Amino acid sequence: MTDLFTEGGKPGVPLPTPDAGYGPALRPGQRLRALEVRQVLAAGGSTTVYGALDSLSGQPVVIKEYLPQMLALRLPDGQVQPRAPEVAALYGRGLQAFLNEARVLMNVDHPALVKVLQFWEQAGTAYQVLPRAQGSTLQQWLAGLGTPPSEIWLRELLAPLMQALEALHRQGAHHGDLSLQSIWLQFDNRADSYLGQKPRPLLLGFGAAGRALAPPSASAAAALPGGFGPVELLDGAITVRQGAWTDVYALCAVLYAAICGRPPPPSLARMARDDMVSARKVGHGRYSPSFLAAIDAGLAVRPQDRVQSVAALRQLLDEPVSSFRAHSASALAAARAAVSVGRSAMTAPMSLADVPPPPARNGAPMPSWAWSAALGALLLLLALLAAWVRG
């Protein structure tokens, strides 16, 4: 059992050695308004996170400070400033993204969405105050379970997450960072066992500051981490097409990872060669056909072929397959196939060993002389992808 303390639920990294005698993190005992810093919990690429005590309420809280340590330093008087004039604009862009995320999370009220209790700017940086909760990430929970969860459990998990995403989308925002690590499961101390835990998900923050600080030259692998990011998250002209459908892809990737034991292949790789074993094949006989067909429809690579909203995804999950709206030729084929099978009973857990592996690739490994050609092909693919998606 761990505390909710890192950005996006992701493990923090060790704090760097203080430079020039100016420690980057606040020290235990320092105060921010009515909050007393108790300990440094973690440091990420753009934030440092502290455990603190609210002296007014007596409740433990989490303070998240905007502090990209590669770009900023803290002076002896406590002021935070960019390390050099050349990075001042980039530092400011990350700061505004951090504040914008805080405004959204403070204004959107849903029990499955992490709540920013307060935020403010101070001494050249900014702070968010969050509640402190015990639990684990969905990734940690699934690893402890050791077997794919039942459809009943996944649907119980899915319902509040979809409601939280819809609350965000109504505000004109989207999450953009959904993964097994950005979903926090709060522990119910009244449950009699680990398996008796009902899913109480909490969708964590967007990591907006970290994305704002990513350089335009960031690699495709870094822009689309872990198989959960759709292609429109790539930097450049494609980003104008982000929206509710972006979160739909990531949410369906989370479901796919839960039933398969691994996330889908990276979306950029799927654009060139789609080796993903469909959810229909992975979960056949263990999950209902409508459930699996909906996941596949949400994982369409091209944004325009994908389920466009959470409401549309809910309809695919809950209605008879014959009434599905076809979002692509493959989704329509999946729906018709599911109708012929009929709705099955909710699944029993299966062993990860039963999950079929992805198709094997034929041929010898790529020789060393071909890597430069492959890199050129990748750059060409990105350019074609931008034109394709806009079309």
Biggest pleated-sheet summary: 6 strands, antiparallel
> Number of helical segments?
12
Order of helices and strands: EEEEEEEHEEEHHEEHHHHHHHHH
Please give the radius of gyration in angstroms: 22 Å
How much of the sequence lies in strands comes to 5-15%
Strand order of the largest sheet: 2-3-4-5-9-8
Residue runs with pLDDT of under 50 for 5 or more positions = 4-22, 217-221, 236-240, 321-375
Shape: globular
User: Helical proportion?
Assistant: 25-40%
Q: Mean pLDDT, as a whole number?
A: 76
Defining key terms:
alpha+beta, four-stranded antiparallel sheet, 391 residues
Written account of the structure:
It is a single chain. 35% of the residues lie in helices and 15% in strands. A hairpin with a 2-residue loop joins strand 2 (31-32) and strand 3 (35-43). The longest helix has 20 residues, at 88-107. It has helices spanning 88-107, 138-145, 151-170, 208-213, 220-223, 244-260, 267-272, 279-282, 289-298, 310-318, 329-341, 371-390; strands at residues 2-3, 31-32, 35-43, 47-54, 60-66, 72-74, 80-82, 118-122, 125-131, 134-137, 183-186, 201-203. The chain is α+β, with helices and mostly antiparallel strands. It is built from twelve helices and twelve strands. Mean pLDDT is 76; it is low at 4-22, 217-221, 236-240 and 321-375.
